[in-house]
Structure formats: structure tokens, C-alpha cells
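Example protein as discussed:

>
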Amino acid sequence: MITPDVGDLTGKRFAVYLRRSPGEKGSTKNQLSRIIKGIDSLERATGLKIDRRIVGKDIDKKKRFNATKDLAKEGDIFNEGEGATGFKIDSRPVFKELVRRVREGMYDGIVVESFDRISRDILGLAYFGLPLWREDGKIFLGLNGEYLNEDLVNQYLLAITSSAASLTKAQEIEKSKKGRADAIDIGFIKAGRPEFIGSGTKAAGLDYREAYRLMKLNGENRDGNLIRPSDVAKAVGKTSKDGTGDNKWASAWYLKMKEYERLGVLESWLSAYEAFNAYIIALEGYPSVKWKNDKGVANIKKYTAGFFAYPAGIKVEQSKEYVEFPNVSKLDLEILAELDDPRDYPNRMFKVRRIKTIPPNLSTVQKQGRSRATRKS
């Protein structure tokens, strides 16, 4: 909707800006489809066509973003893409390129679905938007009826709206943090897991104990890396498409299990892995069906995820704490499977330790992978 109060837009050139925040549903492609009628209306009001070509990130998400090429494209629709936070404008290259073009006179204004697409923080909107509006006469137009004008009441109401949006998103982030904290308390952390029987991988049920035995027989080179890793991988059924042993898998798991052994948790990890496989087999029926549909298996998967990913503990980057998960090899999986909350395990044997003081000299197996550690809320 373009409010008549915004005035005569004849001959004004507009750029469209799209952005979806982390955690929001949908995509910027959905966002564009929602405002397409508004863009059509804007074209009628200005008498100028808006070039529907995309500048910035591929709206179909088929191509990786290349700043050098994608920010140099022609078009009037600027797509920041998914997962672009509304609080840190400096981390949004597409918006910065749009502002540059506006300052250079290529556009008379910026149109968005709503002003929180520019910033959820009123200070961020004021920093980038108000100077362009007040000093350069640029137009900021929201297709939900928002616009910047000289009416102080409108500015005041806009400030309230933006502040409310900022507060709402901040509350969403806090809720997300609390959700992660609650998940950790029941043993869950989002991470990789070993190839349990029934889990659907080609090597499901892989014998890690035998793999490590063969790895130690092969030995390592001067750099501490496994010798002939493909031989070990092939021997335990971990093969590539061409039938050869998976070299990368064996090399990575040798280093990981070697660290588990150094830290004194390898035997517990192996025993727990074997116990979970035995539990699934004992259920009878197809292991893959049990893995997907059995409630008890689902409970165990959730409550033991942290231990199987980080048996020696983990530095959680988002909460800046060190976490130690319960040793699954000391738990009865049949009891664990029946619990709606693992903290109800008898004699409080299921307890996650959360320590604010981070131990020094942590191993690589006690740190989150970069992609998870840097993921934003």
C-alpha cells in the first residue's frame, strides 16, 4: 500500500530492498511475491518501470554469493537473502551497496515491505536513513504505509514501531538462547553423530572399535597422521563411490579417536555406541524403521546427542561456557528411553555440568566446528 500522504512520486526512481532475518519463516522470494502488487502500484505512481533484475544474492538460492560480481549487477531489486540480521547493518553488503548507489544519485528512494527490513534497531535506521532523507531528500517508503516525512508525530510513531520491532526480535533471540540452554540440560546439542545401525547411512552400524584397532596396527607418520587410511576404511565397509576406502573418513576418525583415547573417554564412547546399537537390534524389526519411528529410540538419540558428539566436553561458543554431558555408558538405555525428561533418571545420574570457567588448552574434539560456532541467532 502506498499512502496518498507521501505526495507526488512522478519521475522518482526507486530501488527495492529485500531481507529475511535469522529464524524468520519463508524467504526473500516469498517476500518479493508479497509486495509485487505494491511495486506495480509504485510504477504507476512514478511513471517509471522498476527493473526486476536482482542485485546481490541469488533469490532462487542456486548460486553461491560472489560480492565482486553480484554487487556489480544491474537491476533495481536488491536481495540481502536469508539469515541477514536486522541489528548489524555493517554485516549486510547488499544494503551497503544500495546506500552507495542512492548517495551517488542513481535512486530517489528505497522501498521495502516494512521499515524493519532496513533495521530492527531505531538507531540503525536513524544512522543510515535519516541523513539520506534530511540532507539528500531521499524517500524511504514502506509498502505497509510507513514513510519518512516532516511530520514529527509520524517520526515519533515510527520510532515506537521500530523500537517495538527491535524489542520483539531481541525477545526472539533471548527465547532462542533459552531454548538452546534447555536443550543442553537434557543432553542435546546439534552436532554430528556416529553411524548407528538403522541410521540410513551406507555404513550404518559401522564397527568403530575394530576400525580403531586396525588404525593403530597401521600406525602413523611423522606428522601424526594415519598411514594407508583407505585400507582401514575399506576393511570396515566405509567406501567411496568407486569402491575404494574413504580416505578422508579414516584420517579424520583416527585423529578424533586418538584424542578421545588421550582424554580418557574412548572406551566409554565405544561402549555407549555399541550399547545403543544393541538396544536397537533388540527391539526386533527393521533397524531403519526403529531409528525413524520408535519413541524410545528418539528419546535416546536426543538425550545422548551431546555425549556422542563431545564425550570429553565442549566449549559452547554461543553461551561462552564449558559443558560436560553424562557418560552414556553408565546409563541404562531402557530406562532412558522411557523418560520424557532425562533429568528424572534414578538417583540423579543424568546431570549435565555447565561450567562458566573455560578450561585452558582444549582439544579440537572439545570445540564446536566453525559453522556451528559462528551461526547467528
